[in-house]
Amino acid sequence: MPVTIESSILSPLLLSPTCLTKLDTTRVFLLGNKFSTTAITLSSKTSCISCTLVRSKLSPNVGGSVEKDKKGKKIEHHLRKRRDSAQSGQKALALVRTICELPNEKEAVYGALDKFTAWETEFPLIAVAKALKLLRKRGQWVRVIQLAKWMLSKGQGATMGTYDTLLLAFDMDQRVDEAESLWNMIIHAHMRSVSKKLFSRMISLYDHHDLPEKIVEVFADMEELRVKPDEDTVRKVTSALRKLGQEEKRKLVIKRHGLKWKYIHFNGERVRVKTSASEED
User: Which InterPro entries match (predicted)?
Assistant: First the structure.
């Protein structure tokens, strides 16, 4: 004859080892802040245990209907609320308007930005990132530099994306020395995590300002950290090596990284053609 035991907590000593594995996940049921009552039926012929959850007086909502909205959709409650993207976009526009109306002075810009975030419960990182993106699209490089430096001075937004934007702004505003200082800081602080995009950005900056020696130095760090360059970067490095008269190194770079394409002028047009690894431009 089956034996029925009603208890809020199951004792593992009364059950066989084969049944414990089946029952382990249903040993205790916590509903809200109260335990529900569980009925267990033990059969003398088999070791099977069938557990049935009995609605307790302390938890009458067990097995009830799921909470739904007016349209019949299930209502899900989340502990974390999503941030309002529209609100951060409005803040970004207001931030851009504020910074563009200021004189080109560090004290005035930093003071206005401090006032802008004075009543924020937390740093508006998303809004500032969107503002940087807007200023970058507009080509307002001085404002990009001011806003990015202010954000970094607050200990916020120190990401590879921010560094890439700041290096680009330094490049477009002809601030090679500041770009080099920032690059040295990045290399020393984030040596093992510098991305290929950031290496390419720095090589492009030196190529833009015709500094072949610096290009070779950055490429040496790139190879030491085993970061594989893209074709555009390899092309700029080989061009820098040609300017420095280092033909052997140039051929070695082409052989190692394998340029697949080269550009030639044919009938007055610039045409891209395939090239072998050992072929010279």
Answer: EMB1417-like, TPR-like_helical_dom_sf
Q: How many CA atoms lie within 13 A of 158 on its CB side?
A: 11
Write out the two tokens for 102: 């200021």
* Greatest Cα pair distance in the chain: 100
Would you say 277 and 258 are in contact if contact means Cβ atoms under 8 Å apart? yes
pLDDT of residue 71: 67
* Domain range summary for the chain, segments of one domain joined by +: 3-53, 86-158, 173-281
Full-model pTM: 0.63
Nearest Cα neighbor of 215 from 230, 200, 197, 195 is: 200
Sign of CA dihedral 233, 224, 149, 126: positive
CB burial of 67-79 (b: ≥16 within 10 Å; e: otherwise) equals eeeeeeeeeeeee
For residue 244, give the 3-state DSSP assignment. Answer: coil
CATH of domain 173-281: 1.25.40
Q: Render pLDDT for 199-208 as a digit per residue (tens, 0 to 9).
A: 999 999 999 9
Residue with tokens 């074709």: 231
Question: d(Cα 213, Cα 182) in Å, to the nearest integer?
Answer: 18
**121-127 mean pLDDT:** 91
Type of residue numbered 11: S
